[in-house]
Design a protein that fits this description.
This protein has about 220 residues and is α/β, with parallel strands linked by helices. The chain has two domains: about 110 residues, Response regulator (Rossmann fold), CATH 3.40.50; about 100 residues, Rossmann fold (3-Layer(aba) Sandwich), CATH 3.40.50. About 55% of the residues lie in helices and about 15% in strands. The strands form two sheets. The chain has a four-stranded parallel beta sheet, sandwiched between helices. Strands 6-5-7-8 form a four-stranded parallel beta sheet, with helices on both faces. Helix 2 runs antiparallel to helix 3. This is Asp/Glu/hydantoin racemase. Belongs to the HyuE racemase family. It comes from Enterocloster bolteae (strain ATCC BAA-613 / DSM 15670 / CCUG 46953 / JCM 12243 / WAL 16351). GO terms for molecular function: amino-acid racemase activity. Pfam families: Asp_Glu_race (PF01177).
């Protein structure tokens, strides 16, 4: 069995977290292939939205993974999550599921509360994540309210500095929300810290993405 991890952000925190979570839920003998193109996210950040060229390169990575024998694909960037949505028809046709790292997290947020705080360091991640929460809320017949927390100045900080910054911004929304959702998987190491400080349900995507990847393989009869 082979799974493909498709990254457009290659921070060590994200890669380490994802590989740990995926390793925890899949059989030890599973082959894990990593596909990385950080220029995709860089272009999306510069443009402020997902333009055609980076979308095409991302779909190209999916197709490379399929042609190289992947049984399932995990898309690991929320900024380009809607590209994964757009690729679902080809995923069904090829029989190789393309799983979004954040979709099940968004569903869990809707289950946990009506008022959802969405934290991100990039506007290009904030908006697609909010779109996904609103879509899954509609599918679940729930009404939700979204509260933004755009964490300004988060890039280039070490982990302790970033935790402090996350705490500061979480403090601005904690009283207004039932649940706090991290839009970027690379934030996940702050999850327990923010939960303990503010007593709120805090959700980050790597563990949900790994579980969804496992579910996709189970549905195919591979596990």
């Amino acid at each position: 069995m082979k799974v493909a991890l498709v990254y457009t952000s290659t921070t060590p925190e994200l890669i380490e977290l994802v590989e740990k979570e995926v390793g925890d839920v899949l059989p030890r003998e599973t082959e894990v292939a990593s596909y990385q193109d950080p220029s995709i996210l860089a272009e999306v950040r510069d443009a402020g939205y997902v333009t055609a060229p980076p979308a095409a390169r991302l779909v190209g990575m999916y197709m490379t993974a399929v042609s190289e024998g992947a049984d399932a694909i995990l898309n690991l960037c929320s900024s380009v999550g809607e590209v994964a949505d757009a690729a679902q028809d080809i995923a069904r046709y090829t029989g190789i599921p393309i799983v979004r790292v954040d979709e099940e997290m968004c569903r869990e947020a809707v289950r946990q509360g009506k008022r959802i705080g969405v934290m991100a360091t990039l506007p290009t991640t904030l908006n697609p994540t909010k779109n996904t929460i609103l879509r899954v809320a509609r599918e679940m017949n729930r009404q939700v309210e979204l509260v933004d927390a755009l964490v300004d100045g988060g890039f280039g900080l070490d982990q302790e500095q970033f935790k402090a910054l996350m705490s500061e911004y979480a403090g601005t929304i904690a009283d207004k929300v039932d649940v706090i959702l991290f839009a970027q998987g690379s934030m996940a190491y702050c999850e327990e810290y923010i939960h303990e400080k503010y007593g709120k349900v805090v959700l980050s995507s790597p563990r949900f993405g790994a579980a969804a990847l496992k579910d996709a393989l189970v549905k195919k009869g591979l596990m």
